[in-house]
Design goal:
By secondary structure, the chain is α/β, with parallel strands linked by helices. The longest helix has 23 residues. The protein is globular and about 50 Å long. Strand 8 and strand 9 form a beta hairpin. The protein folds into 2 domains: 118 residues, Response regulator (Rossmann fold, 3-Layer(aba) Sandwich); 98 residues, Winged helix-like DNA-binding domain superfamily/Winged helix DNA-binding domain (Arc Repressor Mutant, subunit A, Orthogonal Bundle), CATH 1.10.10. The relative contact order is 0.11. The protein is built from 8 helices and 12 strands. InterPro entries: CheY-like_superfamily, OmpR/PhoB-type_DNA-bd, Sig_transdc_resp-reg_receiver, WalR-like, WH-like_DNA-bd_sf. Keywords: DNA-binding, Phosphoprotein, Transcription, Transcription regulation, Two-component regulatory system. Pfam families: Response_reg, Trans_reg_C. This is KDP operon transcriptional regulatory protein KdpE.
């Protein structure tokens, strides 16, 4: 695919320059915005493929920007923020952000997060052209119509909750899902607490990640939630 258009929303000039220089050296196209209002106008008028968003803008909180963009667009949003508390990450991800990078950051890590988002874009595009009833990700295959799961061509028997968890992660492959989001989607409320969710997730992982040498499929974001890695993605990129 052609290089995507990236919208960089950052009011700190040195950091904005670092990000845009990094994008330019990699051949990416980009637009910039220094305020929340300008970011919304840019997003509406230029329809970027990816948004890199700082939360601490002078006129609007970044979480509110995420909510506004999510009301009409599903573009990947990568938060780059000095806010490092789990609560800040959870609020941004629950609002609809796809990833969260804490300042200070390395340009290599930023580029890795962009590659993850690009794989999601490609996956979503390919999925529209394929039978939506079958999901494949490396050696993992889910037949939604039949309710069956295979790993390396071996059928895996899951409990109903394990299957629902796997399907939820698969339908959001590459995106971090918070604990609260998963609890709401699977049980409809927070009746089950986070420790119970961890137990279900542990049993699921034992079945689809049978040996330490086998590639990891589900990535834990400590204190935040879980993400299904896409085939070929480095499990160390968090």
């Amino acid at each position: 695919m052609n290089k995507p258009l990236i919208l960089v929303v950052e009011d700190d000039k040195p950091i904005r320059k670092l990000i845009t220089t990094t994008l330019e050296t990699q051949g990416y196209k980009y637009h910039t915005a220094e305020t929340g209002e300008a970011s919304i106008l840019e997003a509406v008028s230029h329809q970027p493929d990816i948004m890199i968003l700082d939360l601490g803008l002078p006129d609007m909180d970044g979480v509110d920007i995420i909510k506004k963009v999510r009301s009409w667009s599903n573009i990947p949003i990568i938060v780059v923020s000095a806010r490092s508390e789990d609560r800040d990450k959870i609020d941004a991800l629950d609002a609809g952000a796809d990833d969260y990078l804490t300042k200070p950051f390395s340009v290599e890590e930023l580029l890795a997060r962009l590659r993850v988002s690009l794989r999601r874009i490609r996956y979503d595009s390919d999925k529209l052209q394929k039978d939506a009833s079958v999901f494949t990700n490396g050696n993992l295959k889910i037949d939604y119509a039949a309710g069956c799961v295979w790993m390396e061509q071996e059928e895996i028997h899951l409990t109903p909750i394990e299957y629902k968890l796997l399907c939820l992660l698969a339908k959001n492959a590459g995106k971090v899902l918070t604990h609260n989001h998963i609890l709401k989607e699977i049980w409809g409320s927070h009746t089950y607490d986070i420790p119970a969710l961890r137990v279900f997730m542990a049993t699921l992982r034992k079945k689809i990640e049978k040996s330490p040498a086998q590639s990891k499929i589900i990535q834990t974001h400590i204190g935040v939630g879980y993400r299904m890695l896409q085939a070929g993605e480095d499990s160390k990129v968090i």
